[in-house]
User: Fold this.
Amino acid sequence: MKHEHESTDAVINRLSRAIGHLEAVKRMVEEGRDCSEVLIQLAAVKAAINNTGKLILKDHIDHCIVDAVLNGDDAAIAELHSAIDRFVV
Assistant:
């Protein structure tokens, strides 16, 4: 089922930037750049992905979960717990 949230455009933009950044890191490795520089850039990519995930999670809670609670959908809460367990590692 396709649905949009307030932050859909922001999420897409953040993912596009993260993809571009990751491609730049790949080029750094191909060019034989210093490992420390590569690790620093990988940390930046990881932070960008995590922040994008937080934005998706916020939208999910604000919309899907609120609707689920109002409609008595306990399965949605269980799915949220499972998603959080997989996202937060």
